[in-house]
Amino acid sequence: MKKAYLLLADGTRFEGQAVGYEGQSIGEVVFNTGMAGYQEVLTDPSYYGQIVTMTYPLIGNYGINFDDYESRKSWVSGFIMREIAEYPSNWRCKMTLDEYLKEQKVVGLAGIDTRALTRKLRGEGVMNGVIYTEGFEPDEQTIEAMHAYVVKDAVKSVTCAESTVYPAEGEQKYRIALYDYGVKYNIERELQKRGCEVVTIPALTPPEDVIGKFDGVMLSNGPGDPAENVEIVENLKKLLASNIPIFGICLGHQLLSLAIGAKTTKLKYGHRGVNHPVKDLDVDRTYITSQNHGYAVVGESVDSKIARVRYVNLNDGTVEGIEHIGRPVFTVQYHPEVCPGPMDTSYLFDKFMDNIAKAKGGAQ
Amino acid sequence: MPLRKDIHKVMVLGSGPIVIGQAAEFDYAGTQACRALREEGLEVVLVNSNPATIMTDKAMADKVYIEPLTVEAVQEIIKKEHPDSLLPNLGGQTGLNLAMELCESGFLDKMGVKLLGANPETIAKAEDRQMFKDTMEKIGEPVIASKVVHSVEDAVEFTREIGLPVIIRPAYTLGGTGGGIAYTWDQLREIAATGIMYSRVDEILVEKCIAGWKEIEYEVMRDHKGNAITICNMENVDPVGVHTGDSVVVAPSQTLCDKEYQMLRTSALNIITELGIEGGCNVQYALNPDSFEYAVIEVNPRVSRSSALASKATGYPIAKVTAKIAVGYGLDEIENAVTKKTKACFEPTLDYCVVKFPRWPFDKFVYADNTLGTQMKATGEVMAIDNTFEGALMKAVRGCEIKLDSMIAPRIQQQSDAEIRKGVARVDDQRLFHICEALRRGLMTIEEIHEVTTMDTFFLHKFQNIVDMEKELASAEKIDKDLYLRAKKMGFLDKTIEQLSGKDISDVKRLPVYKMVDTCAAEFEAETPYYYSTYDEETEVKPASGKKKVLVLGSGPIRIGQGIEFDYCSVHAVWALQRLGCETVIINNNPETVSTDFDTADRLYFEPLTPEDVTGVVNAEKPDFAIVQFGGQTAINLAAHIEKLGVPILGTPAWSIDAAEDREKFDVILEKCGIPRPAGHTVMTEEEAVAAADQLGYPVLVRPSYVLGGQGMEIAHKEEDVREFMKVITRNKVENPVLVDKYMMGREIEVDAICDGDDILIPGIMEHFERAGVHSGDSISIYPSINIEQKHKDTIIRYTEALAKNLAVLGLVNIQFVLYNDQVYVIEVNPRSSRTVPYISKVTGVPMVDLATRCMFGEKLRDMGCGTGLHPEGDHYAVKVPVFSFQKLRDLDTQLGPEMKSTGEVLGVATTFREALLKGLIGAGFKMKKKGAVLISVRDSDKQEAIRIGERFEALGFDIYATSGTANVLNRHMVATNAIRNVDEPSPNIIDLIESGKIDYVVATSVKGRHPELGSVHIRRTAVERAIPCLTSIDTASALLRCLEGDIRIENCEPVDINTI
What we know:
The complex is a heterodimer.
Chain A: E1 3-8, E2 13-20, E3 24-32, H1 38-42, E4 50-54, E5 58-59, E6 78-81, E7 83-84, H2 97-103, E8 107-110, H3 114-124, E9 127-133, H4 140-148, H5 154-158, E10 164-166, E11 174-180, H6 185-193, E12 196-202, E13 216-219, H7 230-241, E14 246-249, H8 251-259, E15 264-280, E16 285-297, E17 307-313, E18 319-324, E19 329-332, H9 347-363
Parallel strand pairs in A: 3-4, 4-6, 5-7, 6-8, 11-12, 11-13, 13-14, 14-19
Antiparallel strand pairs in A: 1-2, 1-9, 2-8, 3-9, 10-12, 15-16, 15-17, 17-18, 18-19
Helix pairs in contact in A: 7-8
Chain B: E1 9-13, H1 25-39, E2 43-47, E3 63-65, H2 71-81, E4 85-87, H3 92-104, H4 107-111, E5 114-115, H5 120-127, H6 129-138, E6 146-149, H7 152-162, E7 166-170, E8 180-182, H8 185-198, E9 204-208, E10 214-222, E11 228-236, E12 249-251, H9 258-275, E13 279-287, E14 294-300, H10 305-314, H11 318-326, E15 353-359, E16 380-386, H12 389-399, H13 410-413, H14 417-425, H15 431-441, H16 446-453, H17 457-475, H18 481-489, H19 494-501, E17 513-516, E18 530-534, E19 549-553, H20 564-579, E20 583-588, E21 603-606, H21 611-621, E22 625-627, H22 632-636, H23 639-644, H24 654-661, H25 663-673, E23 680-683, H26 686-696, E24 700-704, E25 714-716, H27 719-729, E26 738-742, E27 747-755, E28 760-771, E29 781-783, H28 790-806, E30 811-820, E31 823-830, H29 837-844, H30 848-856, E32 869-870, E33 877-883, E34 904-910, H31 913-923, E35 933-937, H32 943-956, E36 959-963, H33 964-972, E37 978-980, H34 990-995, E38 1001-1004, H35 1015-1025, E39 1030-1031, H36 1034-1044
Parallel strand pairs in B: 1-2, 1-4, 2-3, 4-5, 18-21, 19-20, 19-22, 20-21, 28-32, 35-36, 35-38, 36-37, 38-39
Antiparallel strand pairs in B: 6-9, 7-8, 7-9, 10-11, 10-13, 11-12, 12-15, 13-14, 15-16, 17-18, 23-26, 24-25, 24-26, 27-28, 27-30, 28-29, 29-33, 30-31, 33-34
C-alpha cells in the first residue's frame, strides 16, 4: 500500500495511506464537519483551491452516484479522511470514492488522525499545505509555493464560459438570471422547481445584459476572497440601482454586501458543515443551516440606512444574512439550496419568488 | 422566552420498576430533569416506585414519594402536595400513560395542575393507531399500509391495492400464531384462512411486508418557538423485523447518503412539528434499501431508551434540555453544556462511530426462547465508541460480559457447517457470531449472507474485515508494528492477538490514546472530559488537577442480578469522593446510566470494563487509588488486576473478596469465628457433585462461585437434577469451582453493614417474606423485620461484626443468613455493595455509600453521627417487592427458585406493615381483586399449607379450582374446590380454564420446573401470557391474601415523603 502525506505550512507532517489520484497538490487546508454528503462537497466549486478534511471518520460508505453531483467536476485541491470505504453499499452507488478521486485527479490521503488535524486548524486557523503521494515529495520550490499560496482568481477559474438555459419545471412563471460565481446545481434545481426558467450566466456578464431582461437575479455561491472581485462588485452596484429583485447566497451575499460598502473579513477557520444554527432576528426562530465559507461580512460595516443584518450565527454571532431597506433584495451567508445539509431554509427561495411577484405586480 | 412565571412546583413522574423495555435510561433521564428543574429554583415533587434509582434520592428532589405509579396513588400525592405542573415525558411509557390518564379524567384540571411538554391530543396522535395514521396522512408522511379484515376475500382485495408480499397478523393470538408472510397469492389465501381460524375474533391484520428494509431512527427536539433540531440518527444493523432494543445499532447512520439522511430528517421534523411536541421525541423509519421509499414505523413522543443512547453517543443532554424546554426556555436560550460557548440549538456532529450492543438474559435463562422479533428481550445494553466500526463493535462485544473478547465464539466454532448455516438464518442473539463463523469458514459469501439476512453488505464487509484480520494474525510470521496497529484499530485485544498468532508482541505493544466526545467534531473547544480510546496519534487527556485522584469502576450493562442499584452506588461513591476533595475518574460502558453522564464524575471514560481497557485508562490517568466495591461483580472481578497495575484499592482488600468466595478459605474464617453454615462441598465435575449431594442428603443447593444474582443456582431434589444443573453450569468453561450445599428451608435474613475496621453499623435487618430457596432478589423483603426475636438479632449483629472484622472489610458488606430450627446460619457473605443498599439507605436515612467511602479514607463511624451497631428501627415499614418481565421471555418458567429472575423492584413505604405490603404489591402491578376465582395447583410438599391458602380465599368469597391432587386435599379439609383436569389430560382442562378468562389468581408451585415442556411450566406460562398474577410460592400467596383481607385501600394509605422519614 502506498503512503501519502500532508505537509502543513507550520512544518507538521501527517503520514497516511494514499487514496485516489497519485501526485502532489497545494491548497488551503480546511475541515468539514458534515457526517454525510462528501460527494456534494467534492463537487462544490466553493472548495476551489482547498484541501478538504472530513471530520467524520468513515467516508465513502455509500460510494458515488450520478445524481448527486453539484457541478460538472470536483474542485478540491486534495481530500483527506480517516478511513475510506473499500466496499460501499447503496442502491444508487455507481463507483467507489477512490475511483472517483482517481477519475477527477484528486490527490487523497486516508488513515491520518483527522481530529488532531482539525484541532490544529481550530487552534491556529486555516493553513496552507501540500498533499502528496509517496514518490511525489515536494522540493524546496514547491514548499515555497505552498507558503506563498493564496486562492486567487477563484471566481474566474470556476465560472462558466457561456450561459446555459435551464427550463422551468411545469408552467414557466419567471425568468431568472443566475450569476455563476461557482454555482451549485441545486440552486438551479430549486428555481426550476418553482417554475423559473434559469439562465446561468458567466460571472462577469455586464448588468446591462440582465436589467430589463429578467424577472430576478440570483447570485450564486463561490470560492475565494470576495474582495478580489472588484469588477463584479461594480456590476452589482448597477444591478442594485435597477431595483430588480435579487437573492444572494454565500459569495453572492458577500459580493452584494461589498457593493453596499460593507467590509468582509477572513474567519479563523470558517464554517464548513451542515449543523450551523442561524437565528432570524425578525421572527425569533433559529434554523439549522448548511455552510461553507471562510470569509464573513463585518456586521458593523453594514450601513443601517441601506440594509440591516437580519440573520446571525447563533454560535459566534457572525453575520448570516442581510435584508436591504426599500429594495426587494436579500442575501444569506449559508446555503438554503443545501446539498449537502438540512432543508430547513429552502423557504427562502419562496421568499425570492414572492419578491419577484410583488415587483412585477408593482410594475404592472 | 425564559422561565415561565406560572411554574413554581413541578411534579416529575418516574418510570417505575426496571422491566425489559424500560430500564435504567429513565433514571438517567429523570435525574437529569430533576437537576435541571432545581437549577431553575423550582420545587420538585418526585414520584417513582423504584427505590434503586438515583432520582428517588433525598438530594434529587424536594419531596420524594416512593409510591405506586397508579392513578389512585398519584392522585393522593397531588392532593397532598398541590404541584402547579406535571412533567410527564421523562418517565417512559409508564409515566406518560399515567399522566394522560390523570389528565383525561379531568383530575389535573380540577386540581389546577398544568401538563408540561406534552398535551393529550398530541400524545394521542402519536399513540393511537388510527389517529397516528390519520395524522401522518394529513402531513403526507407514509406509514406502513395495513388493514384489518375478516375474510380471505377482503385480504386478497386489500393486497391487490398494496402489492405482495404482505404480513398476516391474526388478532388475539399469542406470539403471532397462525400468521406469516405471503409472497404469492396462493400463500396469501392459505395464511389468511389459517389466521382467521386461529383468531378468537376471526380477525386478521394485512400489512405490507417491509422485512429487510433498513431501520433508521431519528432523535429530534423541538421548543415552543417552533425551533426543531435533530440530535442524532441511528441505523440498525439488523433490518426491520428485530426490535430496535434487540438490534445492534450504529450511530450515525452509515449507509445513507445525504439525500436519504436529509429526507428522513425533514420527515422527522415535520412530524414533531405537526404533533406539537415540546422536548425530545423519537421517530423510527423503515427505508427501502433499493429506492427513496420509506415508512414511519413509530413515534415516541417522549424521552426514550434511544434518547439515552443518543445523549451518550453525541454528548447532547436530551433529558436536561427537554426539562428546560418544558419550563419555558427556547433551544436558542439554553447553553450547550459541553462547549459552554455555543447554544443547545444546533445539531451535534460526530467524528467517531458508536455501536450499541444489547445484553440478553439467555445465558441465565437457557430454556427461554432466544429468537428475536418485535418483542424486545434484552435487559440492558452497552455502548462503545471508536474511530472504526470494527473497533466499536469489538469493544461493545467484549464489554457486554458474555465471556467473549472478540467475534470468535468457542461454542459456535464447534458447530457443524449445517448448524452454522442454520444459525445464520435464525434471527436470535447468536446470529452475528454465526455470520462471522460462516465467513471464517468460507461457508457463505457476503452476497449469500445478505440474501439470507438482508443485512446491508456494508456491515457484512466489516465483519469480513474482522475475520480477515483474525486470519492474518494467525498466519503472520511475526507481528510487526504495522500489523499490530491495524489489529488494534479493529479492536483486537493484546490477549487475542497473542492467542491467534502465538507470537510475542511485547516489542510492538502500545496503549491507546483518548479522544473527547464534544458534540461538534472538534470545531469548538469542549469543557467536558468525556473520553473514548482509540489507536491514533494525539491524546486529549487533560492534565491532572493536583487533587487526589480516585478511579471508580462502574457495573457495565444491566442484566438480571446486576441492575441499576450498582450504578446508584457508583454514582454516590463519586459524589462522596468529590465532597472529600478528590478528583474522580469513572469507567463504564452502559449508556442508560447516571454514572455515564458527563457531569457525574470529573472524568468519564466510556470504555469496556476489561483488564486491558482498564490498563489504558490507568496509564492515562495514573489514579492514586481505585474503588471496586460499588460496581457489582463486574468491578470486583477487576480488583486483582488493578492491584497488579500498582493502584491501591481503597476499602476491603482483594484477598478478602476471594476469601468470601473460596469455600475452603471461607470455612477457615467461619470456624475461627464460631459461625455455623449449612454443610457443603466444593466440586469441579458432575460426578463430584453427585457424590457430594449423596453425602449431604437431598435437597441440596448447587451453584457456581464468583457470580451474581445466583446465576446457575438451583435446588436439586434428586440426582438427575444435579446432573442437569452441572451440565448447564459446565456448558461454558469452568474456571471457578461449583458449590454443593445442604439446603435449609428456613427464614432468610439479610443485612448490609458498613465497617470502618473497628466498628460496624447495620442500618437495618431485612427479613424475607418467602422462605429460603427463593433468591433474595426475588423475595419480598421487609424492613424492619417482623418475625425475628431479639436473641437472633443479637446473634446476627455479633456474626456480622465478627465476619466484617475477620474479612478485613473496610466499607460495605452484605450478609445473608437463614434462621432454621431456632439457629442462625450464614449462607453467603459479599464484601461489597449489594442490591439492597439504595433502598435501605433511603428508608433508614443512613447514607451508606457516603459513610463507606469516608471509612476508606480513615474516618471512623463513631465520628460520623449515624452511630454504630444496629441503627435504631424507624417508625415506617418498607416492603420491597420484586418485578419480573416474564411476559417478554417466552418459554421461561416463572417458578421462583435460587436463581434470580426478577428484573426490577418496587418499594412500599407506610407506617403499618400491611399498608406497606399493599403499596408494594400494587406498585409491582398486582390488581387487588376481592372476589373471583383462584386456581391452585401445588407440589406435594406444599399441599398441607395450601389448605390454609384455600380457606382464606374461600373466606373472601373466591371460587376455588384445583388440579386433582390438590383438589382432593382441599376438599378433604372442607375447602370447597372444583377439581379440573391437568395439562396432560384431555380438553377442557386447566389450560382451557385459564384461557377462558375466569381465573383471577393462580397459585402454582412445582417440584422442578425449567423445561418448557413440563406441565406445571405450561400452567404458569399460560397464566403469564394471559396477564393473570401467578404466585409460585405459598408465602407469596399468603402475602397477597394479607392485602386482600380486611379493608385497606390504596386511596386510604397516606403517601410518605421519604425526605421526612
